[in-house]
Amino acid sequence: MLVAESHRGRTLLLRLDRKDLLHDRILAVCRERGVRCARVTGLGAFEEAELVEYDQAKKVYKPAQSFRAAMELLSLQGNVSEKDGQPFIHLHAAVSREREDQARRVEVLGGHLNRAVVFAAEITLDCYDDLRLHRLPDEPTGLSLWGRCEEG
Fold it and tell me: Which of 31, 68, 87, 138 could form a disulfide linkage to 145, CB 3.0–4.6 angstroms apart?
């Protein structure tokens, strides 16, 4: 288990523009503003999204599923940490879309968010300026998880 406590932080509010690539814009802001550790939340809408699920038994990601359609971003949750000395974003999303092929039924999709093209998005970065969380390989899960934290 890893436990860290932050005593110094700030909040960044981002409004992303249509056609922005979500991950690229958030990473750019992290580099520009010196964000090394943060919680990411958001809402809005996407034009495209790529979602993926992790196969726990095989310890690999399943093939990604790409969606090109108007989607409401119901929930965006994630974090910023460091991996190999660079800012790294880990995001999960829940999106909804209308299915015209099924009598305009609304469906909800979710998972690990690999990529998204923004229609409109409002993102909050709650930054923990006194922490540096480092992602390291975790043998039991096969994932790159928070493995070391520097405080101060």
Answer: 138
